[in-house]
Write a structure and sequence with these properties.
The structure is a single chain. The protein is built from 9 helices and no strands. The chain is mainly α. The chain has 2 domains: 29-99; 116-184. Helix 2 (32-43) packs parallel to helix 9 and helix 3 packs across helix 5 (83-98). InterPro entries: YehS-like (IPR009921).
Length: 184
């Protein structure tokens, strides 16, 4: 049994709990590699097409490296896809789906603008040219209902009073619904 005691000398309560007492999600954490695998399946992309998308985003990734980031965590040769590579992929996906833009895009700086599920969701919305109703329909296909204010809060800037962080469950269900929409 866990006994709660008052915080000691300014230490937060969570710092006093043993590691096993921390709350854990029922679903595994959604990684950049999971998003890449999901998008590859959704769009039925080959490894050369994935290489092309990375290149469109300004990131040179050889085919062998693409194969490594597409592997599951427990497979030999697995390589974690870092935030910078993922952001370049998402930028490349926008160009792949919509064509090049006249808009000059500022280079990605992880410290200035960290990659979040919100940013991935925003890039997907742009790449697939989705309106609010389209996004609700995609989430409904995955049997994951979100209200209009909740959805719009995901696209606010961090620091805005109505900003809400996009959780792994919402992004996972959005990717599932997108797959159902595209692949039927």
């Amino acid at each position: 049994m866990l006994t709660l005691i008052p915080a000691q000398q300014g230490k937060p309560l969570m710092a006093l709990l043993p590691p096993v007492a921390h709350f854990q999600s029922l679903e595994p954490i959604l990684t950049n590699n999971d998003v890449l695998r999901s998008l590859r399946y959704t769009l039925d992309l080959s490894e050369p097409a994935m290489v092309e998308i990375f290149q469109l985003g300004g990131f040179q990734l050889p085919r062998e490296a693409v194969a490594a980031v597409l592997k599951k965590e427990d497979e030999e040769g697995y390589v974690e896809c870092d935030d910078e590579a993922m952001m370049h992929f998402m930028d490349g996906l926008v160009i792949y789906k919509r064509g090049p833009s006249d808009h000059v895009q500022e280079p990605y700086h992880p410290r200035k603008n960290p990659l979040t599920n919100n940013l991935i969701l925003k890039k997907l919305r742009v790449a697939f040219e989705l309106k609010e109703d389209d996004m609700h329909a995609i989430l409904a296909k995955a049997e994951f209902e979100v209200s209009k204010p909740e959805l719009s809060a995901l696209f606010r800037k961090p620091g805005h009073k109505n900003y809400r962080a996009c959780g792994d469950q919402l992004l996972r269900n959005f990717l599932k619904g997108l797959t159902l929409q595209i692949r039927g």
